[in-house]
Amino acid sequence: MTTIASPSSSPATVPQVPLVEMRDIRVSFGGVHAVDGVSVDLHAGEVIGLVGGNGAGKSTLIRVLSGAHRADSGQIIIDGTPAQIDNPRDAKAYGIETIYQTLALAENIDAAGNMFLGRELRSRFGSLDDSAMESATRGVMGRLNPNFKNFKTAVMSLSGGQRQSVAIARAVHFNARILIMDEPTAALGPAETAQVRDLIRQLKSEGIGIFLISHDIHDVYDLSDRISVMYHGKVVGTVKRTDVTTDDLLAMIIMGKPPGEATQKELASLHA
Amino acid sequence: MTETASARKDPGSGSGRSLRSVLFSLEIDTRLVGMLAALAVIWVAFNVMSGGNFITARNLWNLSVQSSSVAIMATGMVLIIVSRNIDLSVGSMLGFLGYFMAMAQAVWIPTTLGLGLDQPFTWVIVLVLGVAVGAIMGGIQGFLVAYGGVPSFIVTLGGLLVWRGLIFRFQQGVTISPLDSTFQLLGGGPKGSLGEIGSWLIGIVLCVGIAYTLVATRRRRRRYDFPVRPMWAEVTIGAIAVAAVLGAVAIANAYAWPPALAADFAAENNIVEPPGGLIIPTGIAYPVLIMLGVGLLMAYLSSRRQFGRYVYAIGGNPDAAELAGVNVRRTIALTFMLMGILAAVSAAIQTARLNSAVTNLGVQNELDVISAAVIGGTSFAGGIGTIPGAILGAVVMQSLRSGMLLLNVDSPAQDVVVGLVLVAAVGFDSIVRRRAS
């Protein structure tokens, strides 16, 4: 290996340790096993797609990684060392940033206030340095969404796309190493969706590892290096993008079986 | 005028300036302006109906003193309601803390410790003790709400009963009196006021503060190359604020000591009374000064500190605050602790004003405080509310009460009117807000 292979061509032979490894993660609500012994890993500069039907456990799994929910058992290993993530602060300390499906914005606060929420810039005597925060926000927004102008209004009066860019800006501003994107394009129009796709490619080229969760199978297929399919709390299989077709993925999502195990009859029934 | 002509976007410039665009350029909270207008209407109406007895130096001075206790607590209630909680126990906390502070200065320090009455530092010690106990009482309730997971309505409803019950248990209906002579000054009155020169000095300090804030903000925005207000807007805002401050000081100074008191004062100090009696300007009362101090501090805390930002973020979206790494529980607990501290400050003012602690001190104060916050624009949906609004709300409430008193409206009828105004104000506000969004 004289040159480092691009992860998309052969992730299995990348010599480095994974950025994150989640091993045998289990979460149950009452008697329901929302996540049932799931293991996934993510390398630097790699995009892992997480797909599955409603209630497959994707969101719960990534909530464990982002510190929003504690796992009942299992291990999270970051850079080869076991990590303890008990709350969102811990996750951020490891460089894990999350764009939640709900966006998780405080509706009554402006863009800068949301972007720096929990990590406010402060001036002498510990006062909030709102100007510095607004300036930084203008900088990030200038790159992400140049049309964004409403820096002084509460995010509740912004459009869906603008709100989404605030959530994305927050995740990318703090030098994330690991980015979790839960349905990042759900609220967006076609032009904005294209922008997010470009952004994902750019972040990937900067060496950031990305977990991408999406209902849009084509989004996931186009952007991911590997795809993990979840079904009823378990990983059905993790496949290289280059090894499968979108139909194979669809089959895995719906039937909960790896492509080889599904019978021709079952596959045919999908197209009926 | 080079400012307005600059390339920066100025929607207010041009020949036909509408009121809306002027307000936009001034970047003034339109809700606050609306409330000030409502207050002006109330004052003028009462003045007309009472035959010119409402807008007098004497009445406005009294109004300022009477509003201060509720206004102080309303600033804390704003943060509690903004973070989607409620504190029903403030009246009982106030009663208990008043009892505690009265006992400390009238019984424990002079008799139990044998130090005697009217020691020079009694008032400071009592105040510090009261604030500490208030912080503990509020802290206990806050802990139960934030870490115990008991709804704040229940915790503070319990607090309302418990603190009031403890007063009756310990105080046994006895009125504790008299209080320390220095402590009494916290309640206001002619002697508990700043006097003419002191009031002007405070007024000037405030004016300098206003000017400094405007200039510093403008400089900061310039440094970051942000759009700034047109110069005429800055000057207008500064001029209005300075005029308001100096006008308030002038009114406070226009209220002279009552003639009998002034005559006593002249006799004590061997001053020959001029014909028509000695005129001693009263100036800003100490409780009003305390209210101003608390208001500025709370406004700073709520808009310029991380704590305040978190309170609003929690009110806007508790889950988002949690996911952003905000320590939601600690922040909530602190808002209740702060409420306890403010209840102690108000308790000091009310007991000092009465020169005693009585068992029903602060009864139903929670309703006045919550009403003040709500009339001042605080939303029960959470996330919305301002400190200046709450103070203004307290003044509106007190204006209604004292105006009706002036018109000899009896107490039950007063309650009916205040109740209707409360509901109407919130109803009107929610209609306006729905239109705006």
Q: Care to describe what's here?
A:
- The complex is a heterodimer of chains A (272) and B (437).
- By secondary structure, chain A is of the alpha/beta class.
- Chain A contains nine helices and ten strands.
- In chain A, strand 9 and strand 10 form a beta hairpin.
- In chain A, helix 4 packs across helix 5.
- The longest helix of chain A is centred in the last third of the chain and has 16 residues.
- Chain A is globular.
- With 437 residues, chain B is mostly helical.
- Chain B is 71% helix and 0% strand.
- In chain B, helix 5 packs parallel to helix 7 and helix 6 packs antiparallel against helix 7.
- The longest helix of chain B has 29 residues.
- Chain B is globular.
- In chain B, 42% of the residues are buried.
- Classes of the chains: A alpha/beta (272), B mainly alpha (437).
- The interface between A and B is medium-sized, with 32 and 26 residues.
Outline the fold blueprint:
The complex is a heterodimer of chains A (272) and B (437).
Chain A: E1 20-29, E2 32-42, E3 47-51, H1 58-65, E4 73-78, E5 81-83, H2 88-93, E6 96-99, H3 111-115, H4 130-144, H5 160-173, E7 178-182, H6 190-205, E8 209-213, H7 217-223, E9 226-231, E10 234-240, H8 246-255, H9 264-271
Helix pairs in contact in A: 4-5
Chain B: H1 2-5, H2 19-26, H3 30-49, H4 57-82, H5 90-112, H6 122-146, H7 152-171, H8 195-223, H9 231-254, H10 259-268, H11 286-304, H12 306-316, H13 318-323, H14 328-354, H15 365-375, H16 387-406, H17 411-436
- Helical region count of chain B? 17
- Average the pLDDT over all residues of chain B and give the rounded result: 90
Strands across the major sheet of chain A, in which order?
Answer: 6-7-8-3-9-10
Strand content of chain A: 15-25%
The succession of helices and strands of chain B, N to C, reads HHHHHHHHHHHHHHHHH
Give start-end ranges of low-pLDDT stretches of chain A.
Answer: 1-12
Describe the global form of chain B. globular
Helix proportion of chain B: over 70%
Instruction: Specify the oligomeric state.
Output: heterodimer
Strand-pairing-aware structural class of chain B: mainly alpha
Report the radius of gyration of chain B as a whole number of Å. Answer: 23 Å
